[in-house]
């Protein structure tokens, strides 16, 4: 993973991907996961997203993984929570009531470390990774979450017109990564207002991934 790239983005506050409000696609489609109150939702590469605050106020527990310690310190400050911090090898575990965030390389997060996951919400992880890493990432997330159902949001655009991240992940690629273990249902396709970074037309696709029964 491009650790230096993301550390520099957070260090310099170059975080145009950070939204000031909960993602409207999350708010609109989260119910499709059909979770019970108190269910535990995992957000890979979560940053300091306010989606976490939204999930907490809706009565869910949250787990996250994030490379940047700066992002997670900002997150807990914004939630007015003082975390308990422990270390698991190279991973730092920030914990408070109903929230656990693992800081470090997500590929070093283990199933035992993460614990029970009822669903995955991936808005900013798959699309943040270059093509050569995405296959390893999807395999790893499936393994550490015991193939919990997922709400996945992808950008789709002409990659030749704009360098990522976020990268374009087509429907064909999403199916390639997930079809062996999940039933994929396309919930919505919506235009990105003003295009991606104002450069090129783009859509966001919302996928519901339900684990296949083997």
The share of residues in helices is 25-40%
The largest sheet has its strands arranged as: 3-4-5-2-1-6-7-9-8
Count of individual beta strands: 9
Strand content: 25-35%
CATH architecture term: 3-Layer(aba) Sandwich
Shape: globular
CATH superfamily: Vaccinia Virus protein VP39
- Secondary-structure-based class equals alpha/beta
Structure annotation, total helices: 7
Radius of gyration: 16 Å
What is the CATH T-level topology? Rossmann fold
Low-confidence stretches: none
Question: At the first level of CATH, what is the class?
Answer: Alpha Beta
Q: How many domains, in number, for the residues?
A: 1
State the end-to-end CA separation.
32 Å
Mean pLDDT: 92
Q: What's the topology here?
A:
Elements: H1 3-11, H2 24-29, E1 40-44, H3 51-57, E2 61-66, H4 69-78, E3 84-88, E4 91-96, E5 99-103, H5 111-114, E6 119-122, H6 131-144, E7 150-157, H7 171-178, E8 182-191, E9 202-211
Parallel strand pairs: 1-2, 1-6, 2-5, 6-7
Antiparallel strand pairs: 3-4, 4-5, 7-9, 8-9
Q: Keywords for this structure?
A:
alpha/beta, 9 strands, 214 residues
Describe this structure in words.
- The model has no long low-confidence stretch (mean pLDDT 92).
- This protein is 27% helix and 28% strand.
- The chain is an alpha/beta fold.
- The chain contains seven helices and nine strands; from the N terminus they run ααβαβαβββαβαβαββ.
- Strands 3-4-5-2-1-6-7-9-8 form a nine-stranded mixed sheet, sandwiched between helices.
- The two termini are 32 Å apart.
- The protein has a single domain, classed as Vaccinia Virus protein VP39 (Rossmann fold, 3-Layer(aba) Sandwich), CATH 3.40.50.150.
- The longest helix is centred in the middle third of the chain and has 14 residues, at 131-144.
- The chain has helices at 3-11, 24-29, 51-57, 69-78, 111-114, 131-144, 171-178, and strands spanning 40-44, 61-66, 84-88, 91-96, 99-103, 119-122, 150-157, 182-191, 202-211.
């Amino acid at each position: 993973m491009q650790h230096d790239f993301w550390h520099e983005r957070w260090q310099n506050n170059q975080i145009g991907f950070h939204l000031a409000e909960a993602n409207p696609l999350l708010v609109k489609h989260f119910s499709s996961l059909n979770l019970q109150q108190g269910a535990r939702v995992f957000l890979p590469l979560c940053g300091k997203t306010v989606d976490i605050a939204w999930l907490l106020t809706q009565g869910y527990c949250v787990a996250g993984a994030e490379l940047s310690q700066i992002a997670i310190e900002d997150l807990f400050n914004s939630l007015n929570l003082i975390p308990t911090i422990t270390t698991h090898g190279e991973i730092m575990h920030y914990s408070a009531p109903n929230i656990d965030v693992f800081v470090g390389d997500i590929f070093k997060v283990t199933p035992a470390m993460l614990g029970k996951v009822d669903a995955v919400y991936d808005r900013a992880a798959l699309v943040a990774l270059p093509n050569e890493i995405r296959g390893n990432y999807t395999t790893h997330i499936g393994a550490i979450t015991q193939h919990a159902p997922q709400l996945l949001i992808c950008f789709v655009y002409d990659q030749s017109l704009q360098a990522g991240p976020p990268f374009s992940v087509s429907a064909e690629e999403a199916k390639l990564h997930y079809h062996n273990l999940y039933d994929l249902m396309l919930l919505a396709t919506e235009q990105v207002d003003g295009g991606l970074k104002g450069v090129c037309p783009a859509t966001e696709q919302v996928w519901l991934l339900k684990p296949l029964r083997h």
